[in-house]
Design goal:
By secondary structure, the protein is mainly alpha-helical. The chain has helices spanning 15-30, 35-44, 47-83, 91-98, 106-113. α1 (15-30) runs antiparallel to α3 (47-83) and α3 packs antiparallel against α4 (91-98). It starts with 14 loop residues before the first helix and ends in an 8-residue tail after the last helix.
Length: 121
C-alpha cells in the first residue's frame, strides 16, 4: 500500500472577510454621491466576482492535487506489482486513468478502460 501525504496550503486571503469589507465599504461610500466615489464603487463592485473566481480556482486546485496524488499512488502500485511479478501490473494505472474523476475526457478514459479494441482487461 502506498500512502501519500498532502501538504495543506492555507489561502492567502479570507474570502468571507474580503466580502464583508466590501459590503461595509460599499455601504459607507454609497452615502456620499460624488463622481470620484462612483469610480471607487465601480471598482469595488468587482470584489464579489473576484472572490467567487478565487473560490472556484481553489476548489479546482484541490481536485487537481487529489488527482495527481491518486496517479502517483497508482504509479507506485504499478511498480510494486511489477516487482512482485503480477500478471498485469499496469492495471493499477489503467484503473486510475479510466476513473471518471481522473480529469481526462471520456473518450480518453475509454481508451484506458478498453485498450485493445473494446476488449476489457
Amino acid at each position: 500500500m502506498v500512502i501519500t501525504q498532502t501538504t495543506p496550503h492555507p489561502p492567502l486571503i479570507d474570502l468571507q472577510e474580503a466580502n464583508t469589507h466590501y459590503r461595509r465599504a460599499r455601504h459607507l461610500l454609497a452615502i456620499h454621491d460624488t463622481p470620484a466615489l462612483a469610480e471607487i464603487l465601480a471598482a469595488l463592485d468587482h470584489i464579489p466576482a473576484l472572490c467567487a473566481e478565487s473560490a472556484r480556482l481553489r476548489a479546482q486546485l484541490a481536485r487537481i492535487r487529489m488527482e495527481r496524488a491518486n496517479l502517483i499512488a497508482a504509479a507506485h502500485a504499478t511498480l510494486a506489482a511489477h516487482n512482485d511479478g503480477e500478471a498485469d501490473p499496469l492495471s493499477y494505472l489503467r484503473d486510475e486513468l479510466a476513473a471518471p474523476d481522473a480529469g481526462l475526457p471520456r473518450r480518453t478514459r475509454d481508451r484506458y478502460r478498453h485498450p485493445y479494441r473494446g476488449e476489457a482487461r
